[in-house]
Amino acid sequence: MPTLPRVLATRLMPDAVETRFRAEFDAVGNDADDALDAAALADRARGCQGVICTPTEKMDAAAIAALPDSVEILATFSVGCDHIDLDAAKARGLIVTNTPDVLTAATADITILCLLGAARLGQASEATLREGRWGRWSPTFQLGVDLSGKRLGILGMGRIGQAVAKRAAGFDMTVFYHNRRKLDSSDEHGATFCADAADMLRQSDFLAITCPLTDETRHWLNAERIALLPDGAVVANTARGPVVVDDDLIAALDSGKVFAVGLDVFDGEPKFDPRYLDRPNAFLLPHIGSATVETRNAMGFRCLDNLAAHFAGHPLPSRVV
Ligand code: DGY
């Protein structure tokens, strides 16, 4: 029997994925699911031809340089690749793959949840109930704002942005988007392209951030851009925390410029700006955009498919570099 390729998984994966991983590879798993810094990762990867990593491992130039020479392929259990220095990977001849498509629906769903959860003050309302502070029904209690029929701006019209636009149509929203390029009309789902982000922001009663984190999008939502939003706008970020300037967003929440925020991602997560916790108009989730059984299985299987294709010499389902 041919020797199976040796592959390290830096994190414990869902059961169905672990089962296939152990059947198809000489698997070096991480049952303890402990955090691996670059040195520990390189140590565990000794003798491995492949590594499955996740956004919790910062695969910067130093971490990539520390990988044993035997490692040919890095399969990230994510669509986002901002934790990987792709230039360093390329320079070293390291193949990188990711998991697009399979998490689009789940992440678009959570974007709608963040928009609605924020607009309807979901977390503050639930806290009222859990903490036994619910008094009588009242015409003025916990008043949110309607989502239906409003205008939505989408920053980043990739697969997830497009899936959000599709869902927004079900809420009779008028959708605008800002993206590096205008999409074919069949991919716009009725949304209008704004080449100038300011045009989109001025019309965004709701703003959904669904772009990748790049040098261009880091700290994109700052005070200057927030000022362009209509008063009382609602902002959701399900992309990456650093796209937003927390100080500026919190100031806008406090002034009422922004009515509420729905955040699934945070700068420096799992740490985050604790001031959000004190804001009743902040609907907060711990980066669970793709966290469903079906989606996480599909993401894991996509990692395994990429690895299997590489070792069989076949084209890779989702190669990044
Ligand atoms: C990704 O895949 O990049 C997500 O953020 C993980 O849910």
TrEMBL record:
Q: Classify the source by domain of life.
A: Bacteria
Q: Which residues form the D-isomer specific 2-hydroxyacid dehydrogenase catalytic domain?
A: 32-320
A Gene Ontology term for the protein's cellular component: cytosol
Cite the Pfam families for this sequence. Answer: 2-Hacid_dh (PF00389), 2-Hacid_dh_C (PF02826)
Q: Which residues cross the membrane?
A: none
Signal sequence annotation:
none
The alphabetical list of record keywords is:
NAD, Oxidoreductase
Which is one GO molecular function term here?
Answer: hydroxypyruvate reductase [NAD(P)H] activity
All copies of domain D-isomer specific 2-hydroxyacid dehydrogenase NAD-binding, residue ranges: 114-289
The keyword NAD is assigned to this record: yes
Instruction: Note the InterPro entries from the entry.
Output: D-isomer_2-hydroxyacid_DH (IPR050223), D-isomer_2_OHA_DH_cat_dom (IPR006139), D-isomer_DH_CS1 (IPR029752), D-isomer_DH_NAD-bd (IPR006140), NAD(P)-bd_dom_sf (IPR036291)
Family of the protein in this entry: Belongs to the D-isomer specific 2-hydroxyacid dehydrogenase family.
Q: Which PANTHER family match?
A: 2-HYDROXYACID DEHYDROGENASE-RELATED, GLYOXYLATE_HYDROXYPYRUVATE REDUCTASE B
Q: What is this protein called?
A: D-glycerate dehydrogenase
Per the UniProt entry, what species is this protein from, by scientific name?
Answer: Pacificispira spongiicola
The organism's taxonomy opens as: Bacteria, Pseudomonadati, Pseudomonadota, Alphaproteobacteria, Rhodospirillales
